[in-house]
Amino acid sequence: MLLAKVIGTVVSTRKEKSMEGLKFLLLRQVDLDGKESGGHIVAADAVGAGFGEMVLYATGSSARQTVMTDKRPCDAVVMAIVDNWEVDGEIKYKKGESD
């Protein structure tokens, strides 16, 4: 699982039939301090995440193991919305607090 921030959505009017009904999110990887640090990725949304939220996502075969993505040609999926994270006893991110 990887940490990322939802920075947008991706709309596709034509897609593989089995992908119909999925919402696609544009993610940017973040480091342990919550700073955008990695590349961008498009992921199917299995949990109803929204713009600006921190999320956990999975890629590869793990991305096809949610109820929403089962048996679909999906390579990335958002599977959790992060409430907070802590590193060495220090809260690094808490949902709702400004950056």
Question: What's a concise summary of this model?
Answer:
With 99 residues, the chain is mainly β.
Explain what you see.
The chain starts with a strand and ends in a 5-residue tail after the last strand. The radius of gyration is 14 Å and the shape is elongated. The chain has strands at residues 2-10, 24-30, 36-45, 54-59, 76-81, 84-87, 90-94. The chain is an all-beta fold and 99 residues long. It is built from no helices and seven strands. The mean pLDDT is 91. Helices cover 0% and strands 47% of the residues. The chain has one domain: EutN/Ccml (OB fold (Dihydrolipoamide Acetyltransferase, E2P)), CATH 2.40.50.
Structural class: mainly beta
Counting DSSP H or I runs of 4 or more residues, the number of helices is 0
Write the element-wise H/E pattern from the N-terminal end onward.
EEEEEEE
What's the total count of β strands? 7
- CATH homologous superfamily heading: EutN/Ccml
Q: What does the radius of gyration come to?
A: 14 Å
Side-by-side strand order of the widest sheet: 1-2-3-5-4
| Total separate domains | 1
- What is the name of the CATH topology? OB fold (Dihydrolipoamide Acetyltransferase, E2P)
Oligomer: single chain
CATH architecture, by name, is: Beta Barrel
Shape descriptor: elongated
Taking the sheet with the most strands, its summary is:
5 strands, mixed, barrel
* Poorly predicted spans: none
CATH class: Mainly Beta
Separation, N- and C-terminal Cα atoms: 23 Å
